[in-house]
Amino acid sequence: MTSKSAAAAARATVYGYPRQGQNRELKKAVEGYWKGRVDAGELRRTAAELRAAAWRRLAEAGVDEVPTGDFSYYDHVLDTSVMVGAIPARHRAAVEADALDGYFAMARGTQDVAPLEMTKWFDTNYHYLVPELGPDTVFTADSTRQVAEFAEAAALGLTARPVLVGPVTYLLLAKPAPGVTAGFDPLTLLDRLLPVYAEVLADLRAAGAEWVQLDEPALVQDRTPAELNATARAYRELGALTDRPRLLVASYFDRLGAALPVLAKAPVDGLALDFTGPAAANLDDLAAAGGLPGKRLVAGVVDGRNVWINDLTASLKTLATLLGLADRVDVAASCSLLHVPLDATAERDIDPRIARWLAFARQKTAELVTLARGLTKGTGAIAAELAANRADLASRAGSALTHDPAVRARTAAVTDADARRSLPYPDRAAAQRARLGLPLLPTTTIGSFPQTGELRAARAGLRAGRIDTATYERRIEAEIREVISFQEKTGIDVLVHGEPERNDMVQYFAEQLTGYLATRHGWVQSYGTRYVRPPILAGDISRPEPMTLRWTSFAQSLTDRPVKGMLTGPVTMLAWSFVRDDQPLGETARQVALALRDEVDDLATAGSAVIQVDEPALRETLPLRAAGHAAYLAWATEAFRLSTGGAAPDVQIHTHMCYAEFGDILRAIDDLDADVISLEAARSHMQVAGELATAGYPREVGPGVYDIHSPRVPDTAEAAALLRKGLEAIPAERLWVNPDCGLKTRGWPEVRESLEHLVTAAREVRDGLPTTS
Ligand code: GLN
Ligand code: ZN
Predict the structure, then answer these.
(1) Which residues are involved in binding Zn(2+) (predicted)?
(2) Could you tell me which residues are beta bridge partners of residue 536?
(3) Strand ranges in 410-533 using DSSP code E only, listed in sequence order
(4) Distance from the CA of 67 to the CA of which of 287, 336, 438, 762 falls in 20 to 30 A?
C-alpha cells in the first residue's frame, strides 16, 4: 500500500543526543580539565570524538538528518548566552582571559565571582544556567561553535541540522541581572537580539546548512498576548531574512495551544511538534489551524523523555493523519534524547523479558527510522518490526510485573477515609504535645548528616564484595551512634538517624520496592558534569519487607529523645524516577503511597512518635500549563495523605520541601495535612513563613534558618534574627527551628558549628518570649 504524499520520503531525525558518551567520557574529561589533569586540547579532542561517535551512530542507524550544536561542555542555554554575547559583567574578565575558563566560570563561579543561577529546564530533571540580562545588555553574535560543529558533521559526509535555543525562549528563560530592577522584562530586548540571530543564521547558511532548528519550548507554557505578539514579530523578522537557511521552529513538552496558530502563520519553513502524552492535543489544534500547507512538519511521535518502547502501530496512525496536514512529514522523538540514557542493551542485569520493553536513546533512534520507513514505503516494508513491537507490547501488558492482582485490589479498595487522619489537626496537636512534651521552638534537622568519604567507600566496598554485609552494617551503626550522640550533646529536640545507609534516597527506596528496576549505565545529565541514574518504575509497586525500620529502631534504642522516622514521599518517588506510561500517574502514586503507608505503620508500631515523609519534588512536577495544576495537585496530595493517613493521632507527621517558590502551591501544602512542614527559607529571608501565614496555614512550620547550599556557617545572631523574622508570621506554639534541607552534602566541621549556633539561637529566642502561665 502506498499513499501519494507518503511517497515523498519521510526523514527520521533527532533534536539532540546524550552528550556524555557510553562511559561518561565527557564527565571525566571536563572534571579532569578542572583539576588540571587534562589540558584544553585534550578536552576538545575528547569532545569532538564524542560528537563524531554520536553522529556516526545516528547515521548508521539510518537517521537522515543529524543534529549539531546540541552538544555542550556544560549546558546549552549557557552556550546560547555565549553565542549572543550575553556575558555578565562579573565574568567578562575571565572570558576575555580564556574563553573556556571563562565559560566554566560562568557555569560554576570562581573564588571571586558567583556563577549564573541554575534552574530546572521546564519539567525535566535537567538544569540550565539562567541568562542574566538588563536594559544595558548589548548582544553580539559569536557563531564560532555552531559553525564549527556543523562543519565537523559535514566533514563526515552527514546531512546536519544545527539546533539553537530560539530567541523567544532564550529571553523568556532569562532573569534580570543583579542590580537590575526586578520589574525588568527581558523580552523587551527582542529587537536587539534578533539581528544577532540573523547573523548566526547567515553564518550557518554560509557554512552550508540547509535547515536550522530553533527550539521554542517556552511557548508550550501559558503565554500572554504580548508574549505571543513578540513571537509573531520574531518569526516574521527572521522569516523575512533573505540570507538564511530554512527555519524549523521546534516545541516540545506540551501542546503549543495559542502559540500554534501564531507559528503556523509565521513565514518559517517548518514546525516540529510534540504529539505524545498531553501534547497529542497538537493534532486537533493543528487541524483547526488549517495545517501547515507548503511547510515541513516534524512529528514528535516517540516519547523522548521516557524509557519505554513506542507503540509503532499507534504512531503510524498519527503520522498518517498528519500527512494530510502538511507538505512533508518527518519523524522525530518528542524532544531531545538528552533526557534518556544512551543504550538499553547495556543493561545486562535486567531480565531480558523485561528489557525488551525498554527504549533508551539508541533504541528510540531505531524506532524513528522504522517509522520513517513505514511512512514512506508502507507498513509492508516494516512488517517484521511491527510484529516484534506488538509482541513486546503484549508481553508488557500481560506481565505479572505490571499487573499484580493484590496491588490492584488494594488500590481499588482505597476510600476517602484512608486518605484522612482519624482526628482533625487541633486534636492531633494536643495528643502529640502530650506525648512529645517538646519545648517551644523545638529544634530538629531534615534527615541526612554528612555523607563522609568513609561511608561512600563502605558502600562501594559492599557492592564490590570487598566487605561483607555484617561489616557494612557495623559501619552504619557506628555512624548512627555518632550522629545521635552529637545531636544529644548539642541539645537538639527531635533527632534523626542521619541516613548514612542512603546514597540517593529515591534509589534507596526503589531498591527495596517490588516493581522498580535499577540500571547500571542509565545515566542522564542533571546539570554540568552531574549525572543521575533514575530508577525505573516498571510495574505494580509493593513492599516485601520493612525498608527503614532496622536503622530507625537502632537509632531510637540509643536515646530517650524522639527519633524521626524518615521516608521519601510518593510524589518525589515518581518525580525522580522514570515512570510507567501505561497507566495514569495518579494510580502509580497510589501504589507507592500504600507501600509507604505500611512503612509508616511499622515505624509507629515500633514506637516512632515522629515520622517525616519528604516531598521535595512536589512543586517541580507541577504541569507546565495552569490548566493541568488542579488535577495534578489532587492526586499528588491524595497520595501523600494516603501514605500518612493511617498514623494514629499522637504520631506527629512531618513533611519537607525545598527548591523555593512555594507561592503557587500553598493550597496544596495545606492539603497535605501534615502536622509539621519544614521548608527551605534562609536565602529568601523567611519569605515562605509570611506567605503561609497570609494563606491562613493552620499547622506547625519550620522555615529553614541555615542555608545548607553554602559552606558558610551562620552565626547565632543571624539564625536568631531569622527566627524572630519567622515569629512575625508564625506564633511560637507552631514554629520549629531547623536547617533548610538535609546535610549530606556538607562537611562535619561546618555542620557541627552551624547546628550548635542554631540550638543556641533557638534557646535565646525562646528565653526572650513573653511567659505564659
Ligand atoms: N530527608 C532528606 C535529607 O535530609 C531530604 C532530602 C531533600 O529534601 N532533598 O537528605
Ligand atoms: Zn530539602
Answers:
(1) 656, 658, 680, 741
(2) 517, 578
(3) 514-517, 524-527, 530-532
(4) 287
Residue 755 CA to residue 716 CA, distance in Å, equals 10
Residue whose CA lies nearest to ligand 1 atom number 1: 447
- Helix %, strand %, coil % of the chain (to 5): 50, 15, 40
Task: Tell whether residue 614 is among the known ligand binding residues.
Answer: yes
Q: How many angstroms from the chain centroid is the CA of residue 579? A: 13
Residue 588 has pLDDT above 80, yes or no: yes
The Cα 541–Cα 230 span in angstroms is: 47
pTM beyond 0.85, yes or no: yes
How far apart are the CA of 472 and the centre of ligand 1, in A? Answer: 22
What value, to the nearest 5°, has the Cα angle with vertex 68 and ends 186 and 193? 20
- Alpha-carbon distance values, 147 to 47, 140, 166, 202, 451 (Å): 15, 16, 17, 10, 44
pLDDT at 67: 98
- Contact indicator for 189, 133 with CB cutoff of 8 Å: yes
Residue 592 CA to residue 355 CA, distance in Å, equals 22
278 grid coordinates: 498531553
Mean pLDDT value across residues 124-149: 97
9: nearest Cα among 331, 379, 364, 336: 331
Instruction: Evaluate whether 336 touches 354 at the Cβ level (below 8 Å).
Output: no
Residue type, 70: D
Instruction: Give the residue, out of 614, 677, 680, with the most ligand 1 atoms within 8 A of its beta carbon, to mutate for a pocket test.
Output: 614
Q: Which whole-number Å values give the CA distances from 529 to 42, 83, 127, 188, 505, in the listed order?
A: 17, 21, 11, 33, 20
Closest CA to 137 of 62, 194, 207, 87: 87
- pLDDT above 60: residue 7: no
Q: Are 253 and 274 in contact (CB under 8 A)?
A: yes
Cell numbers representing residue 752 in the block: 557541627
pLDDT tens-place string over residues 423-466: 999 999 999 999 999 999 999 999 999 999 999 999 999 999 99
Give me the catalytic one of 339, 521, 629, 709.
Answer: 709
CB atoms within 10 A of CB 563: 26
* pLDDT for the residue 1: 38
Cα gap 31→33, rounded to integer Å = 5
Can you list the domains of the chain with their CATH numbers?
3-72+131-398 (3.20.20.210), 425-450+484-767 (3.20.20.210)
Q: Is residue 274 within 8 Å of 307, Cβ to Cβ?
A: no
At residue 6, does pLDDT exceed 50? no
Burial of 692 from C-beta contacts in 10 A (0-12 / 13-18 / 19+): buried
CA angle at 260 for the pair 620 and 84, rounded to the nearest 5°: 70
What's the pLDDT score for residue 447? Answer: 98
Residue 399 CA to residue 438 CA, distance in Å, equals: 50
* C-alpha separations of 394 from 68, 407, 517, 576 in Å: 37, 20, 19, 27
Residues within 6 Å of ligand 1 by CB = 446-448, 499, 505, 566, 614, 616, 656, 658, 741-742, 744
